[in-house]
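DM from R.C. (forwarded with permission)

"hey, sorry to bug you on a friday — could you get me a structure for this? deadline for the figure draft is monday and I only need the backbone to look sensible"
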Amino acid sequence: MNRGATAAVAVLSLGLLSCAPKVDVAAEEATLRALNDTIMVAENAKDVEKAVSFYAEDAHVEPANMPAVHGQAAMRDLYNQFFGMGVSDITSTVDQLQVAASGDVAYQYGVNKYKMAMPDGSQMDAVGKYALVWKKVNDEWKIALLAFSDDAPPPPMEQTPPPATQP
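My reply, with the result:
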């Protein structure tokens, strides 16, 4: 290839690259922060369907002390289980949120807090951490991966003593 053709190809290539859409990473981060707030509203309203709608169809979730769950149907069951256990007053802070330059994937991590009703009627305050990965699905942000756990071990389960034996 001669120099003129090489230069033309180089200029054309640069021109095409400059036509690639630019991602406004700050705007995407703001969108994700707003979605986090909306998720908290849905969870505190115990609106399972709304909460599940933020997850990708193929979402993978790793809750503490439980088997991993896959997909929205499993997330629906997990939310119902948590709400059935008396989980309430859920809050989440975002310590780090990073959107990829491509604008189609992001990660975040932070601290979560919630209350759980105990069998004796008291409430346990729990503090933990989470990490999650967002992905764009049909131009909408969806949770692709979530892992979370409490900082403290789970409370001991009530155990029924064995029946007394007769001498």
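R.C.: lifesaver. The first helix runs from residue 3 to 18.
me: no worries. The longest strand covers residues 123-137.
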